[in-house]
Amino acid sequence: MAWVSSLRGRFPLSTRGTVLMHVDFVLTGIVMTFLGPMLPALSARWSLSDAQSGSLIFAEFFSSMFGMLLSGVLVQRLGYRLTLITGLVLMPSGLVLLAFGPWLVGIFSICLMGVGYGMTTPACNLRTAEVNPGRSASALNWINAVWGIGAMSSPFLVSLALEAGKPWFFLFSTAFALLLLLAVLVFSRFVPDHRQPVAYSEGSASSPWTMRFLPLICALFFIYVGTETSFGNWVAMYARRLFPGHDSLATMTPSFFWGALLAGRALAPLALKFSRETSVAKTGLLIAFAGGAALAAARGMSLIVAGTTLAGLGLASIFPISVSLLPGWFGAASRRASGAVFASGNVGGAVLPWVVGALSTQFGSLRVGFFIPLGGVIAMLVFYIANQNLRPLRQEAPMLQSS
C-alpha cells in the first residue's frame, strides 16, 4: 500500500467520504445479492445439485465473516480509506474470476467477494457514525437503505444480462463500477481517517461470554440472517423450477423481497411511533410467516410474488429492532457483545441457506427446503412473544453492520 500513500501528496482531494461510502454501499448491495438470481445459471453451468448450490451461499457469507473480523484491525492500523481500498480490490477480482472460472475457481472467487464485502461494510458504518456524531442513527439508517437500493436492483440487472445470453456482462460491468470507485479513493484522502478509540465503562470490561443472555441473542441473530438470506437467495431458483416458462420473472423475484425489505424499513419508524418495539416485531413476523407459508404452498407465480413480498415486508423491522434492543439486553457492555452477536448472524447467513439446499437434494424438492426459513420465522416469533416486555435503553448507539 506504500504506492497508494505516495499518490496522496500528488492528488490531495480531501473529503469526509460520505458520498463515496454511499456509492460503495449501492455497489456492495448488488455484489452481495446477485448470487440468488444468478444461482440457476451457475447451477446449470457447473451441473450442481441444490446442496452444491447452497455451498456457494455458504462460501459467500462465511468468508464475509472473516472480512468483518479483519476490518476493525485494518481500520485501526491503516485507516478507513485504505481499508475500503483493500475491499474494493478483492470484490472486482472475484467478479472477474467468476465470469469464466470452473467450479473450484468459482468458490474461490465468491470467497474473495465475501471477504471484500466484509471489510468494507463495518468500515463504512463506523465511518458514517463518527462523521455524524449528533445524528448517527439517522445517518446509519440512510446508508443501509442505500444498500437496499443496490440489493433491489441486482435481480433486474442479472435478468437483463441473462436475457441477452451474456451473464459475464453483468459481472464485468459491476467490476468496472467498483474499479471506478477504487480509482477515486486512490486519488483521495479522508479527513479524518482513523477510528476514534472507544472508552468502555468499568461494567463493560468483562468478557462478553460471561453474559447469560449472549448465547440466546447470538441464536436470534443466527436465525434472522439465515432466514433472510435463505428467502433472498433461493426464491429465484424456486420460482424457475416450479414455473420454467417464466424465467425472466423468476430471476427478478428476489427484487420483490429486497424491495419489500427496503420499504418496510422505511415505514418502521412510523409504526414505532404508535407501538412498542416488540409489538412491531411480532406483527412483522406474523406477516413474514404468511409470506413463507405462501411460498411453501405456492402453485402459481402470483403466489410466489405475493409470498416473497410479504416475507420481505415482515422481516424488514426485525434486524433494526433487535439491534436497538442490545443495550436493553447488555447495558453498558452492548458494544463488546455486538462482535459475537453480528458474527453469529453471518454464520447463520452461511449455514441456513446451505441447509435449504441440502434438504432439497435429500428430498428432491426445494419446496421442502423452504420450511427452514419458515421455521426460522416461527422461532423468532416465539422469542419475541417470550420477551414482549423488553424495551431498549433510550440512547443512540451506532449499528456496526447491515443485514
Characterization of the model:
With 403 residues, the chain is mainly alpha-helical. It folds into two domains: 9-194, Growth Hormone, Chain: A; 208-391, Up-down Bundle (Growth Hormone, Chain: A), CATH 1.20.1250.20. Helices cover 78% and strands 1% of the residues. It has helices at residues 2-10, 18-31, 35-46, 50-78, 80-100, 103-131, 136-163, 167-186, 214-242, 247-272, 277-296, 301-315, 318-324, 326-330, 334-363, 366-369, 371-386, and strands at 13-15, 188-190. A two-stranded parallel ribbon has the order 1-2. The radius of gyration is 20 Å and the shape is globular. It starts with a helix and ends in a 17-residue tail after the last helix. Mean pLDDT is 83; it is low at 200-205 and 394-402.
Q: Choose one word for the global shape.
A: globular
Biggest sheet strand order reads 1-2
Radius of gyration: 20 Å
* CATH domain class name of the largest domain: Mainly Alpha
Largest β sheet strand count, sense and barrel closure:
2 strands, parallel
Quickly count the domains.
Answer: 2
Amino- and carboxy-terminal Cα gap? 30 Å
- Secondary structure class reads mainly alpha
- What value does the average pLDDT take? 83
Give the CATH topology of the largest domain: Growth Hormone, Chain: A
Give short descriptive properties of this protein:
403 residues, mainly alpha, Growth Hormone, Chain: A, two-stranded parallel sheet, 17 helices, 2 strands, 1% strand
